[in-house]
Amino acid sequence: MHTPKPSRRRLLAGGLAAVAGTIAGCLDGSVTGGPANDGDADRVLSLSLSDAGETLRDRTVVDPAETDTRWDDGAFAAARRGETHTTQFRTPFFSTPDDPTYAVHEGTYYRLSSVVVDEAAATRPVLRLFGVEDGEADGDEADGTETDEPEAADAEALPEGDRRAVEIAHFAARARDNAGGMPVGLVERGGYVYRDEEAVDASALLADDGPSRVTYRDIVYRVAVARERFHEPVYRAVAEPVAESPAEMEAILRARTVGARIDGDDLSADAVEVIEAARHDGYEESHPYSDGYAEVLRAFHERPYLDGDVRNDGGVSESGADRIRYEDRYYDYRLRFLPAGDESP
């Protein structure tokens, strides 16, 4: 067996890479799948496992009686009774068909979702921020004569709704200069859209006499506010009973999210060592993989990393990721190719 090292396992490195590549095909049972491609020795296949607990319910099922769900008030109760409860723009349970929310009430487990039942038009304030160059002021005259530069408000001193708006609008402003990405799910129309009426009423930035500049992370921004028309979906909350016991709910979650089910007794000692290393600090090898690593990949149903064109079928840029059950616990795993000299976690 090849003795694994926590986090970094180099089967082929330096001058040994060429030798191992030459003799790999001659070692009976040492290579699983098709022949290695030229250049496979310059990268490793990294496997990491993160503990997902003994049950899936603990992380997935919400008990609104014990947890602040931040759902729309009354959505769960109304949906359970079959009554109509709608929300505008945001889904009532922050869920999607591919990623549903589950909740429990008096021993019954529900799958929470929503359907679009209408469209509503609304006018919303939109905050956009723009960088201010040194020496430039909003009041600069056309002939170059500078007027008094307006004082910038400190974002931290603004009401809570404005602080959130400035933070998100900052990401959009930064992205315009290609200096970083932005949270697409939060940024809208190049800024932040106020949808909370309480935040609108309490806002200092939206007031007629509000500041024209704001400072955030030591950057001075010019404030621009527009009121724009939005057409937003209207969602009806849906609560569908799916289970009457914890075991039934666990089976549903297992069927939805778990791929391989692995018993350590069915694995060789080499494969168990690979999994144990991956559970702690991660594990890696170059292709062709050892018998133990190949056995683990097959047990995880990740045969594209073994069979055929390993470099292309295994995925050069995309990572393999899924959830498994190993012994009595669940684990989320990730497979990805890394340069052989990479020391990133």
Q: Let me know the average pLDDT.
A: 82
Structural class: alpha+beta
Low-confidence stretches: 1-38, 134-145
| Beta-strand percent range | 25-35%
Order of helices and strands: HEHEHEEEEHEHEEHEHEHHEE
Radius of gyration: 28 Å
Q: What percent of residues adopt helix (DSSP H or I)? A: 10-25%
How many helical elements? 9
- Distance between termini? 25 Å
Q: Write down the domain tally.
A: 2
Q: What is the number of strand segments?
A: 13
Q: What overall form do the CA principal axes indicate?
A: flat
Main sheet summary: 8 strands, mixed
Biased composition (Acidic residues): 133-155
InterPro entries: TAT_signal
Region (Disordered): 132-155
Structure description:
Residues 133-155 have a biased composition (Acidic residues). The chain is α+β, with helices and mostly antiparallel strands and 345 residues long. The protein has two domains: 43-54 and 258-339, no CATH class; 71-136 and 151-244, no CATH class. The protein has helices at 16-23, 57-60, 75-80, 160-176, 197-202, 246-257, 269-280, 291-299, 310-313, and strands at residues 43-53, 61-62, 86-88, 101-105, 108-131, 153-154, 192-193, 213-216, 219-243, 258-262, 283-285, 320-326, 329-339. It is flat and about 75 Å long. The chain starts with 15 loop residues before the first helix and ends in a 6-residue tail after the last strand. Residues 1-38 and 134-145 have low confidence and may be disordered.
